[in-house]
Design a protein that fits this description.
The structure holds two protein chains of two kinds.
Chain A (H helix, E strand, L loop, with lengths): L1 H13 L2 H4 L19 H10 L1 E8 L10 H4 L1 H12 L4 E8 L4 H6 L1 H8 L3 E5 L2 H6 L3 H16 L4 E5 L13 H15 L3 E2 L1 H11 L12 H20 L10
Parallel strand pairs in A: 1-2, 1-3, 3-4, 4-5
Helix pairs in contact in A: 5-12, 9-10
Chain B lengths: L1 H17 L19 H24 L1 H36 L6 H4 L8 H9 L10 H10 L1 H10 L1 H18 L15 H21 L1 H5 L1 H22 L1 H4 L4 H7 L9 H17 L13 H8 L1 H21 L4 H30 L21
The chains are: A alpha/beta, B mainly alpha.
Chain lengths: 247, 380
């Protein structure tokens, strides 16, 4: 229902323009990508300093296997996309891939902030906690403390939730953790990048088939799209004037 | 107790449907329209039945004999749980061996435990490692193990026993008491919290229902109940539709959400109690339609609840497997859901047939005690 009405609204708004451009493979419905929460530090870095430093803290799903994995993973895609769209701004995205629970990750924040002084931290977490079965309350506390550390450090934060993984999700209690991430982010005034909702949308729309067992290059395309949409969110939430059109 | 069996049978179907992930038919199940779901129905009715059957046994044959029968039932449930775990292992081993999509390398670590069967099998046997959807039977086992002394006190002083159970519920929630799970965390169904619903069911079976009869008949209570059910429906549906969720004032949202299943959130408990109350008001024990043949399939499933419950869990694994391997289109989801329910009904029917066969057996055999499957009597 919602998707249909969003689609309808989108068609009405865009009118003929929608048909003039080739269909965007990464496209998702509007409500999946909210840019309501501002990112003041990002805006300042882009407009004043002309230098945007981003740190991505995440687990294994924020990178890809193999020698060239890092180059194709979404942090690198995000860097390329932001660099392309924010002309004249030096964009640097540094991935910090770690294996550990939300609480473990949060302990690394002070050192990371001190070393890199990022304007924006994208924190992808939750997967390890779901697999281990971290207690709900402990998970929420760790999330809240981690976000607080980042917010008081002079950086903007985007929280990213789990992947949509239809083959393994049914074997884990994903729902309560995803809900907790949504509410904690809301309470902390941090935008949530709903990776799970976005990937589910792609799966339902037939953009990508996440049931598939083989790797036919979709992996890189998925990460490319995640990087693209993240860039949309950073630019949209950062209220940054786009120098170039997306396409 | 056809009314009880009817609702238990329906709960078994709902549990089966809910356990098939990403299934369009899930939309018919009650968890989308209120705080509580089929798990509450199952636990409550299990408590009711246990008290009804073993309460009579305890009065007639004394606490030792009745206690021994309860423990025997607990053992049967344990064996059923281990059997289901083996089926689960077979499925997960198959998927784990075949599935290799680098996008999900991290989620794939879930199958890592297959490399250390020594650990995982031991942890499963002591009920610490419980795969998703296999959390209800361990709860039931623990509840049955602790039921003999509980039943004894319920028979002596039902209200006092219920009060004690309620205090444990409150204290356990307050101090976070729960049993440990493996590899981390606690039980998904906290026995210290969920025992209250089980005891509440038992209390209702042992005369408690009559104590609240005036509440059931009260018009004011009915109006308040319907209001609460509507509120729960709006809040739960809003969780599914982001646009609807935006219309809910934040303070209400924060007051209600998250509705905690692990520790049986009071909102869930209240929701179930109200559902039960409204149901009892409109569907009396001697409701003529209970004899209607259309209800028969659900009733016979309810009469064989443990077996059909296990079958339902197995069918949900199998159904999910078919959806993943063959097709996950909507028509296939509907087909798998319907086929599963038909299989559950057919198996329940065969079991009834066996039971009749046994009953007609040689006269020298003593009559089978109806352990956990009360068919006689009509207390509900």
């Amino acid at each position: 229902m919602t998707r249909f009405s969003a689609l309808l609204a989108g068609m009405l708004l865009c009118g003929g323009a929608a048909f003039a451009q080739p269909a965007d493979v990464c496209a998702v419905s509007e409500d999946l990508l909210s840019t309501d929460v501002p990112l003041p530090h990002v805006a300042e870095a882009v407009t004043q300093a002309k230098r945007l430093q981003v740190a991505v803290v995440g687990s294994a799903s924020s990178t890809l296997r193999g020698a060239s994995g890092v180059q194709h993973a979404y942090p690198a895609q995000l860097e390329a996309e932001l660099g392309r769209r924010l002309a004249g701004v030096a964009v640097k995205v540094v991935p910090h891939i770690q294996q550990g629970t939300t609480a473990d990750m949060a302990t690394t924040f002070p050192r990371l902030i001190a070393a890199e002084k990022p304007n924006l931290v994208i924190w992808q977490t939750g997967t390890t906690d779901v697999m281990l079965g971290t207690e709900q309350e402990a998970f929420r506390d760790a999330l809240d403390k981690g976000l607080q550390t980042l917010q008081t450090s002079g950086a903007d934060v985007i929280l990213m939730n789990l992947q949509y993984s239809p083959r393994t999700d049914p074997m884990m209690h994903v729902g309560p953790y995803a809900d907790a991430m949504r509410t904690v982010a809301e309470d902390r005034g941090v935008p949530l990048f709903d990776r799970m909702g976005i990937m589910k949308y792609w799966n339902d729309e037939g953009t990508f088939d996440f049931y598939s067992m083989s790797n036919d290059g979709t992996v890189e395309r998925v990460h490319h799209c995640i990087g693209r949409l993240l860039a949309d969110q950073v630019i949209g939430s950062g209220k940054v004037v786009q120098n170039k059109p997306t396409q | 107790m056809p009314r009880l069996d009817l609702f238990r049978g329906i709960a078994l179907w709902l549990i089966f449907l809910d356990h098939i992930p990403f299934n369009v038919v899930n939309w018919v199940t009650i968890r989308n329209y209120g705080f509580s779901d089929a798990a509450e129905i199952f636990v409550f009715i299990s408590g009711y039945t246990a008290a009804f059957v073993y309460g009579r046994a305890m009065r007639e044959r004394g606490p030792i004999a009745a206690g021994a029968r309860i423990l025997k039932r607990g053992w049967q449930v344990y064996v059923a749980h281990v059997f289901l775990f083996v089926i689960y292992l077979a499925e997960i081993s198959y998927v784990g061996a075949k599935f290799d999509n680098p996008l999900f390398a991290e989620e794939f670590n879930l199958f890592g435990f297959l490399r250390s069967p020594d650990v995982i099998l031991t942890q499963a046997l002591v009920l610490k490692f419980k795969p998703v959807n296999m959390d209800v039977l361990p709860l039931y086992i623990v509840l049955l193990l602790s039921f003999p002394p509980l039943l004894w006190s319920l028979l002596r002083s039902p209200n006092l026993a219920l009060l004690g159970s309620g205090i444990l519920y409150v204290v356990a929630r307050k101090f976070g008491w729960n049993l440990p799970a493996f590899p981390a965390g606690k039980w998904y169904f906290n026995p210290f919290a969920w025992q209250f619903l089980f005891v509440f069911g038992a209390w209702c079976a042992l005369g408690g229902a009559q104590q609240v009869a005036s509440l059931i008949k009260s018009r004011t209570v009915l109006v308040l109940s319907v209001a609460y059910l509507l509120f729960a429906m709006v809040m739960t549906l809003a969780g599914h539709f982001p646009r609807m969720h935006q219309l809910i004032p934040t303070w209400i949202d924060r007051l209600v959400n998250p509705v905690d299943k692990t520790n049986l959130d009071p909102l869930r408990l209240l929701h179930f109690a109200i559902l039960a109350l409204v149901t009892v008001r409109f569907i009396p024990r001697d409701w003529p339609y209970l004899k209607w043949s259309g209800f028969r399939p659900a009733i016979i499933c309810g009469e064989h609840s443990l077996e059909i419950f296990c079958l339902g869990i197995f069918l949900s694994f199998a159904g999910h497997f078919l959806l993943v391997e063959i097709s996950n289109r909507a028509w296939m989801q509907i087909l798998v859901s319907l086929a599963g329910i038909v299989i559950m009904v057919v198996v329940a029917w065969i079991m009834s047939w066996y039971k009749k066969l046994d009953a007609r057996g040689p006269k020298s055999l003593p009559p089978q005690p109806a352990a956990g499957r009360p068919l006689a009597g009509d207390a509900a």
